[in-house]
Write a structure and sequence with these properties.
The complex is a heterodimer of chains A (172) and B (667). With 172 residues, chain A is mostly helical. Chain A has helices at residues 8-21, 40-52, 69-83, 88-99, 114-143, 149-171. Chain B has helices at residues 2-30, 33-62, 69-74, 81-86, 92-113, 119-143, 167-196, 201-232, 243-268, 272-294, 308-332, 347-377, 387-405, 418-424, 426-443, 447-470, 478-487, 490-514, 624-641, 653-662; strands spanning 517-523, 528-531, 534-545, 549-560, 563-568, 571-575, 580-584, 586-589, 593-603, 612-621. In chain B, strands 2, 3, 4, 5, 6 and 7 form a 6-stranded antiparallel sheet that branches. Chain B has a 4-stranded antiparallel sheet with strand order 1-10-9-8, with helices on one face. The chains are: A mainly alpha (172), B alpha+beta (667).
């Protein structure tokens, strides 16, 4: 059962879980006091991994932050694998084989996520190109040829006309 | 009886909104002053009726009238008064009533303060507001009636989720909605301009104060929400990239872009069509935020209702609003005349870059928020998009924005001199390098965090340089500098303050993310632990009854070099209605850092030892600067809002015409 420290995300989840599971769940905690590995280097690796792994029953919360029982189980699991000498990649592979990509807060790059990873930068490039092209087009369009006397007179007439129009708009 | 009156008032408001949506539009087309004026009357009256409905709902909460379903489900007689009142908008139905109330408030404000607007434009703006109001009122009346009765009435209510019983969260939704809904004014102006077929500097000048006011409220709302997350969720984090947070962040990003592009329309009569599009998109994003949160499509934080009829209703509403306004845009925008010319290196060019980066950042957040939904909907599995994704996409897009933010204000309009700007920023650059080097020497990394500090320093120094240039600091006699400072337009001061605030926020985010230290351990009474130079001793843990909960409270004495600093009293509260426990972190702030303590669960006694408690201690450097920065940023917005030119007496189109003539080459 989810403990409220996980925030409002717990509000909804707790409401759902409370109905099905009942309220007498044992207490759990985020990165508890007695979980830490004795080897600081290994523990540091564990904490780095925790930040990239999703607490599956929470909303966008990593198992490093979550109070949920399941997050605690996952933390213990990761620490066990680390103690057994697994590499980070092996642990990630093991977890995704069990829970799917959903467990990773950083989606892996694959066919279904190419758009997710490339779109921001593609958009920036496309947007930048559009801006540059438009600015250039406007400049060449405007600067191509100075207006001749007749055009200037017409422009003045048009501008005056526009001024009247503005008056109408403001006074109507 | 009062609840029925409230319900009736809502229905009347719905009818008024229908009239407001149509009659003034017709009047504007026929140039009929009486019909156009009807919009103002309808807007004010609609506000009065919705306020009546809102306050009758609030009355039901205050007197704990549990014969109203909404009250019975979300309130409790033993709840403190503040949370009875705030309980009105802590649930789906009540929050939607607040939504339409704020919408009507803006409509009434346009009617009351929009005297200088051309009547046809005002009539059309009010009509668009009426359409939005009609749609959302229909949504409330048809799917989310807060006044439903319950027979027999229960003896007591279910209570409010204890995690929401917090002052920060009590005021978070009203500010958020002031922001969301405030952008409806920019939207209404944009649609009205499309109907009229004209956008000019005067239009931008009318739109800006409304946008600025909405932006200030949204900034404050988001800051309150993140502050609440920080002290209530109990592990020192302040932003989760949760879809609901993103839902409020996207309109903020787009609204910030809109604020900047509207400046170009106002000053240079350029970017008109883009600004219209941004005004539409900002409000569409705000409505999408409402959809995401209220439809239950995310089943996430802050989401309390999941009922597909409601979701489909808002989705349909969103599609009609977005489709209609964008369709109108596609029809009318091409006929808009191009405005003033400018070179790529110019103030306008800088603001275009601002819009490009903010636009891409908005799109990135949108993508990250919707991608998991889309992937799941098409059956391609389930993915999570969390903080690591945004760190690799959003942050690299925002970093250059902050870098150029220091330079943009120094560029001249039309044709800027980049070499000249860089020369004027030479001192700032030197100091930035020094700050970055010193930070690296003291902290030893991580490199990205050190660069973040450098970026913040660069922005702060660039902003100060721009101000110093304007007032000719140290280059003119002090009296002249002071006179210039006094003569600065409020909008310019507001910009300086808001940009400086951004530097403060960047620094706070960077330092607290990179240099947080923590101690998580089981402590027995009498035990002490060192963190960031503090010595924290657990004295005792005791049970303390609260108004509607029972607390376990730890007393932690904090000393530094033997001298007492403070006593921290983190609590764990067990509520009975509904049954839930919350943690109340104890925070000692020096404004340079927070010492943050959380009481966890009791631990099993070690063999031969006493039973202990899990205690989590965090030292978060500069974290208060995030919210201090946000408050300063809002202050900057408010200062800008008091600018003479933003005031209600802003010049009419005719006056502006002659002003434009004075600017050579403006046409």
């Amino acid at each position: 059962m989810i403990r409220p420290r996980t925030g409002v995300r717990a509000a909804l989840a707790a409401a759902l879980v409370a109905v099905t599971v009942g309220l007498a769940a044992p207490p759990a905690r985020a990165v508890g006091a007695n979980e830490a590995l004795p080897d600081p280097a290994l523990e540091a690796r564990a904490r780095e991994l925790f930040k990239e792994l999703r607490c599956l029953v929470c909303q966008n919360q990593s198992i490093d932050d979550s109070d949920a029982e399941l997050a605690r189980d996952l933390r213990i699991l990761v620490r066990e694998r680390l103690l057994a000498g697994d590499s980070n990649e092996e642990i990630i592979r093991f977890l995704t084989s069990r829970y799917g990509d959903f467990v990773l807060l950083k989606p892996p790059l694959k066919a279904s996520t190419v758009a997710l990873w490339t779109a921001p930068f593609a958009l920036l490039l496309i947007g930048g190109a559009v801006v540059v092209l438009r600015l250039r087009a406007r400049r060449t369009a405007r600067e191509a040829r100075p207006l001749d006397a007749q055009e200037r007179a017409r422009l003045r007439a048009l501008l005056d006309d526009d001024g009247d129009d503005g008056g109408k708009g403001a006074g109507a | 009886m009062i609840a029925e009156a409230g319900h009736f008032a809502l229905v009347l408001a719905l009818c008024l909104a229908a009239a407001q949506a149509t009659v003034p539009l017709f009047g504007a087309a026929r140039n009929d002053a009486a019909l156009m004026d009807m919009g103002r009357t309808a807007a004010v009256t609609q506000f009065v009726f919705i306020a009546a409905a809102f306050f009758s709902l609030m009355h039901a909460y205050i007197v704990s009238d549990f014969s109203v379903v909404n009250v019975a489900q979300n309130s409790h007689s033993a709840k403190p008064m503040l949370y009875k009142v705030a309980g009105v908008w802590s649930n789906h139905e009540g929050s939607m009533v607040l939504w339409v109330l704020i919408l009507a408030l803006f409509g009434a404000a346009i009617a009351a303060f929009g005297r200088n607007l051309p009547p046809a434009l005002r009539a059309r703006v009010l009509a668009v507001q009426g359409m939005i109001g009609f749609a959302f009122l229909l949504f409330v009346v048809a799917t989310s009636n807060p006044f439903l009765r319950l027979d027999p009435a229960p003896v007591d209510g279910n209570g409010l989720n204890p995690i929401l019983q917090d002052p920060g969260l009590a005021f978070h939704p009203p500010f958020l909605y002031l922001g969301y809904v405030g952008f409806s004014v920019a939207f209404a102006f944009a649609v009205a301009a499309l109907i009229e077929g004209r956008v000019d500097a005067a239009w931008a000048r009318w739109v800006r104060p409304w946008t600025l006011a909405a932006w200030c409220a949204l900034t404050l709302g988001i800051a309150l929400g993140s502050w609440w997350a920080y002290y209530e969720l109990g592990w020192g984090g302040f932003w989760f990239w949760d879809p609901v947070e993103n839902a409020s962040f996207m309109p903020w990003l787009a609204g910030t872009a809109l604020l900047h592009s509207a400046i170009v329309v106002e000053k240079r009569d350029a970017l008109k069509s883009w600004t219209i599009l941004l005004a539409i998109l900002t409000f569409v994003l705000a409505m999408m935020g409402t959809f995401l949160v209220r439809s239950g499509v995310l089943t996430s934080v802050h989401t309390f209702a999941s009922d597909p009829t409601r979701g489909l209703f808002i989705l349909a509403l969103l599609l009609v609003a977005a489709g209609g306004s964008l369709g109108l845009y596609a029809l009318r925008a091409p006929s808009m005349r191009m405005g003033g010319l400018f070179a790529p290196i110019s103030r306008e060019g800088g603001l275009v870059l601002n819009n490009l980066l903010l636009g891409t950042a908005t799109a990135t957040v949108l993508l990250g928020t919707l991608y998991p939904l889309v992937i799941e909907a098409v059956g391609a599995g389930k993915v999570s998009v969390g903080a690591p994704y945004y760190n690799l996409t959003f942050v690299p897009i925002m970093a250059p924005l902050i870098a150029v933010m220091a330079m943009g204000p120094l560029l001249a309009w039309k044709r800027g001199d980049l070499a000249g700007v860089l020369a004027r920023l030479a001192a700032a650059a030197v100091v930035t390098v020094l700050v970055t080097g010193t930070t690296f020497a003291f902290t030893g990394g991580p490199v990205l965090a050190v660069l973040g500090v450098g970026l913040a320093a660069w922005l702060a120094l660039g902003t100060v340089t721009e101000l110093a240039e304007r007032i000719r600091l140290f280059r003119a006699p002090p009296a002249e500098t002071l006179r210039r400072l006094g003569g600065l337009p409020r909008a310019a001061i507001g910009m300086t303050v808001a940009h400086g605030a951004m530097a403060v926020i960047v620094l706070g985010i960077t330092a607290s993310s990179a240099w947080q230290s923590e101690r998580i351990l089981a402590m027995t009474p009498g035990q002490a632990v060192e963190i960031a130079g503090y010595r924290v001793t657990l004295d005792r843990v005791e049970r303390i009854p609260g108004p509607n909960y029972l607390a376990e409270r730890a007393t932690l004495t904090v000393t530094r070099n033997g001298a007492p600093v403070t006593v921290l009293r983190p609590e764990k509260r067990a509520f009975t209605t509904p049954r839930q426990t919350t943690t109340e972190a104890a925070i000692h702030t020096t404004f340079m850092a927070d010492l943050y303590a959380v009481l966890g669960d009791p631990t099993a006694p070690a063999p031969g030892g006493a039973a202990g408690w899990t205690v989590r201690l965090y030292h978060n450097p500069l974290v208060p600067w995030i919210w201090i920065g946000a408050v300063i940023m809002v202050a900057g917005g408010l200062v800008s809002l008091t600018d003479r030119r933003h005031r209600v007496g802003a010049p009419s189109r005719k006056a502006r015409g002659s002003a434009d003539a004075a600017v050579p080459g403006a046409a």
